[in-house]
Design brief:
0% strand, mainly alpha, signal, 101 residues, Cytochrome c-552/4 domain-containing protein, elongated, single chain
């Protein structure tokens, strides 16, 4: 009988802790960069962190690919991806030439 009571108490405690613990992942990781060269990404980072910026850039990439044969993938403008998304030497220029703002 004591084992059942102890088991029930353990499950109840685990349920309380799992429901009351804050979930940082649901809030999204903030953007690592603090200076932005485009308004699009600055606003996306402010709105929803890295997840929002990635979503916005994926949508933007499909538009840019249609306008420029030099922009094909994320790596066309970035030397590395998450978390810093470092730009290539001509990444910003390619972005703007393809119609990015």
């Amino acid at each position: 009988m004591k084992k059942i009571a102890l088991l029930a108490l353990t499950f109840a405690s685990a349920a309380v802790f799992s429901l009351s613990a804050p979930h940082e992942a649901s809030a999204g990781d903030p953007c690592v960069r603090k200076e932005f060269k485009t308004k699009l990404i600055a606003e996306a980072c402010k709105k929803g962190g890295q997840a929002e910026a990635k979503k916005v850039m994926k949508k933007q990439l499909s538009k840019l690919k249609a306008k420029s044969d030099k922009v094909k993938t994320c790596k066309s403008c970035h030397t590395s991806l998450a978390p810093k998304y470092e730009l290539t030497a001509d990444g910003l220029e390619l972005y703007k030439q393809a119609g990015g703002k």
